[in-house]
């Protein structure tokens, strides 16, 4: 693991990030991802300069997204110099992906059953 990956892992492991559970170097299909949160279907990649504009990474990200995962990529220097900001982004994304969708307002009105409405307008 790179220095950036080690630093990020220190913060992610053992539920240090608000009790969220991450795995590192986890295989998914033909790939091994740096870090993964199964519950939020979130993958975190710590990238060095070799990933700049990588066509391989684009193919990999497309494959992962097609299976319902979101991929967050951070540059190594970004992790090393601003780990708190990186952690905020990760935690915000987890919260967003875990928050339930708002329930639509009922078209039936409060306290009225569908049967009552269906027969009311016949």
- Order the strands across the largest sheet as they lie in space: 1-2-3-4
As a percent range, the share of helical residues equals 40-55%
Give the CATH H-level superfamily. Answer: VSR Endonuclease
Largest sheet composition: 4 strands, mixed
Count the E strands. Answer: 4
In the CATH hierarchy, what is the architecture at level 2?
3-Layer(aba) Sandwich
InterPro entries: DUF559, Endonuclease_DUF559_bact, Restrct_endonuc-II-like
GO molecular function: endonuclease activity
Pfam family, one: DUF559
Keywords: Endonuclease, Hydrolase, Nuclease
3D structure, described in words:
It contains five helices and four strands; from the N terminus they run H-E-E-E-H-E-H-H-H. By secondary structure, the chain is an alpha+beta fold. Strand 2 (31-37) and strand 3 (42-47) form a beta hairpin. The chain is globular and about 30 Å long. The model is unreliable at 108-122 (pLDDT under 50). One of its GO terms (molecular function) is endonuclease activity. This is Endonuclease domain-containing protein.
